[in-house]
């Protein structure tokens, strides 16, 4: 049977259909790169600002560059099971891979007691989707949205004359962002513990727990140490003293934390991480984290993991907090960059850890 000749209009539509997918994809990349709105805060812009603020790069994470891998497990208490269907709140001995780090862009910087510390975790239930979370020890995040993040990184730009951020630029950031004053002051007066093992780590961002019946509860969470808490002594004589202490602590005994969920009250602000929640909010002990192994990032299990806070299992959802999207995008771009770079050895080497293992044996 003879086919009717294709009309010019139909031919054009067919070609349009063929090209629509690639065109849309190209436009998406241009949009993500900020080509249509130069003022947008993009992944590349954030990476550039981190670079200007002294981020080392060269195969390392653009922030929290100095770190070490840890592993262990999580035992649910069952007390949060009615709030979320996520397997991690229902099961025992869920394998965990984690990372302790300092919030610095330089992987070889000397340890300082006042530097922000982080705990990042990947929970891996055997027959369920994993959960990743990254937490810091300040109790609140003094940033509200993507613009605040970009402005803050820009304020930390290194002055070539001094090799440090300009005090005037840092002061100007505070003056032009008065809505962040309360959060900054709370962090400035936070208790600083002696090290990683006795530190408390906060989710900073808000999330939503979803129960089996669909009920939703907004929460923030905290890892509270079960080890005795001691004040930091500001020790700076040992270049890597915080990590040496952590290695010694974890070889001496398993380290443990309670995962405590704080349930949002009606007056708590969910979508702004710079807002401090009420001190009398209800809390629930969701279970116990146990870490009993530590390895260098040189070949360690955490090295290739991006602790993206939006890698969430059924039962945990992101809130409308805009910083979550910023963190996820920045982590993924950082991972993409460092994956294509040659990496030098970590400050916390396998030999350093093996020295403590030899002492224990």
UniProtKB/TrEMBL annotation:
Tell me its EC number(s), please.
Answer: 1.11.1.-
InterPro entries for the chain: Catalase, Catalase_core, Catalase_sf, Catalase_SrpA-type_pred
Q: Does the keyword Ligase apply?
A: no
Q: Which UniProt keywords apply?
A: Heme, Iron, Membrane, Metal-binding, Oxidoreductase, Peroxidase, Transmembrane, Transmembrane helix
Checking Gene3D superfamilies in the record gives:
1.20.1280.120, Catalase core domain
Provide the Catalase core domain boundaries: 40-357
Pfam families in the record, alphabetically? Catalase
Q: Does the keyword Oxidoreductase apply?
A: yes
Please give the cofactor(s) recorded in the UniProt entry for this protein.
heme
Q: Where is the signal peptide, in residue numbers?
A: none
- So where does this one cross the membrane? 12-32
PROSITE patterns given in the database record? CATALASE_3, PROKAR_LIPOPROTEIN
The entry's family comment says:
Belongs to the catalase family.
Q: Briefly, what is this protein's role?
A: Has an organic peroxide-dependent peroxidase activity.
Q: What is this protein called?
A: Catalase-related peroxidase
Biological source species: Gluconobacter frateurii NRIC 0228
